[in-house]
């Protein structure tokens, strides 16, 4: 039945996915396109042409374009007579097309005079298919010329031709400057509701009402529509969404009305114009009925479908989801139906989103810049899919396991069967009273056979280490103290020294930090697990005893607890825990095979990986057996996390062949997965730093060059927002369920975790750049910093907050700040600032040691929930 569920759930979700694609692509009946329309706005630019750089199509290309329109329209409207475009009247006559001839008017007076002279020359040739003349196109709207100057140009042309003459402006310009109508023979208006933010389903009625308004204002003048259209792609303008479907719907509805009313109109426009990207942004490119390759963009008579080839996209999204789900289901025997359903929903959602984003992005015309960005986005998209899948997998396994695979067996062994344990305590410059308290707790261990080795390495002040040496002497022969200076290798060097002085009969080595107070039953409860000869490591969690001191430490406690109550528990299910260097026990044999790696700043995790590579097992027991002290300041909190993240990268670099299966070891697929996926969120923080730097660069360009640089593609810009929401939701739900945290503790843990994001990202790149990082001990009992010092401790993060906030404000102050993509980009900048703001807030909290811990609520000890094997199959 369970195996059938592995297939049934994905099939059901697949059917729902296909149904969603089908629902969003229901065909809509729209009025058919007329057999022959009144006219097209005609700018026959090819993909590489650019009139702003005086690069025009050849006469042959223009002729081919006119031939394509022959029989589909009665006329074309041009915009200039410069270069080869002066040949349009002659060429159009051969294709039975009338011409409304245009002359361009811009801010350059001399260029305008040359343009009008060319217009005079073309008109003098007497082409009978030229039926109107339009001098200037939105020249008043662009403020290229004054109204008076434009009226002079119009009067000048009207004196040289018998043809009716006008200028073309949006409807509102005519109403604003009614005297302009006295200098034209007819009114030419532009009806482009997109630019006014009108939704497509209201746009036809809106355009008609504006036409009637202008007609009523000038009853003695003919009103023709010089441009009417809708873009098929580009930026959303308030309620106006550019899309191929909306373009189809608007044009077919408007043309049906225009034909019934006898309007004279020119559809904006015949062909897409990639060159307009420079002057109008992406939206200027996509107004054509034909694309730049001269292919029709939409159906003229058939029902309208949002994505005509949606079936192929739906199939691709299902295929991607199935492949991804097959990987996630490989080892899911203990996952409940709810967990499998959750994974299915997530994988289908991200696969569908990925297919849609790629489809949507590739609908634009590719330039070298957009292609390069697209490649980067594709690589980033793969990373996002991998990251979300890994996070979802941990989410599912944390909440919806039917049973634990590896319930910890509590063996009862007689005293004479218990092995000798060497407890080793490395110390450097530790306060003597702190270390003495640790040793007293070890002296109270309820275990018959153990020794304690204290290795003080490189402490220079005798007043620090001499009291500890004396106290070891008082505790008896089983306590041995070593002061070693100089000693290379930091903590790993001290532990290797201890290993050389370990009692010959010791079979197990236990390591604790100098600030840990252990429970009397620590060894007696956990050492018997080594009765299984395959067990190489037994690990208890790090826990802390000073969370009640202040709010900062209560926050840290909540943040730490997530790893030990969630991450380590799920990793243990596949024998893939991270060994950490306190509250750990290692079988001496595997330890002596390579010792502690002095090249690695996180020698504990590196040793654990080597133990797995050798084929040994590790057990994790989520139960408090010892509690230490947390960092006193945010600066020290950051240093500790920097060291952990830095070490993780160095381990991956050193062991990448083993982790990717290129070098034969005893690592299982599950172990490789957890070591790669477990540190993936930290790499994501590093990538996020690159994203933020790129986002700031893009924002600066948007502010400095508002006419040329638009916000990133809207579907792409939404990804960081969705990722942030997913990550926060996962953290919140897992804390509430698995850590059994209160709402305040969950929020505090999230805030503290976000505060470390920048530190982790710096550690990622620091480790990639260099393998040399000195060991820095996390100080204990340090005095809290002042508020100014706290801000300095988070100065990089504070600068990012200021930069991102300033960027968000400045982009909203652009002229197009009302547009949706600008607002979404501003939201992205604000959301990306949250981790940096969290750093500043947490640093300030650490500078206020009198803030009571009750504001967060200190957490209790972790209960021993897995010490007995159980046949209970209910979720834990």
Automatic annotation (TrEMBL):
Catalytic activities: a 1,2-diacyl-sn-glycerol + UDP-alpha-D-glucose = a 1,2-diacyl-3-O-(beta-D-glucopyranosyl)-sn-glycerol + UDP + H(+)
The primary location reported for this protein is membrane
List cellular component terms (GO). Answer: plasma membrane
Q: How does it sit in the membrane?
A: Multi-pass membrane protein
Q: Where are the transmembrane segments?
A: 310-329, 341-359, 365-388, 713-735, 798-813, 825-848
Q: Name one GO molecular function term.
A: hydrolase activity, hydrolyzing O-glycosyl compounds
| Entries under Gene3D superfamilies matching the protein | Glycosidases, Spore Coat Polysaccharide Biosynthesis Protein SpsA, Chain A
The protein's location, in the record's own words, is: Membrane
Say yes or no: keyword Magnesium present. Answer: yes
Per UniProt, the keywords (alphabetical) are: Glycosyltransferase, Hydrolase, Magnesium, Membrane, Transferase, Transmembrane, Transmembrane helix
Q: What is its EC number?
A: 2.4.1.336
Q: What sort of enzyme, by top EC class, is this?
A: transferase
A biological process (GO) of this protein is:
carbohydrate metabolic process
UniProt-recorded name of the protein = Beta-monoglucosyldiacylglycerol synthase
Q: Which organism is it from?
A: Marichromatium purpuratum 984
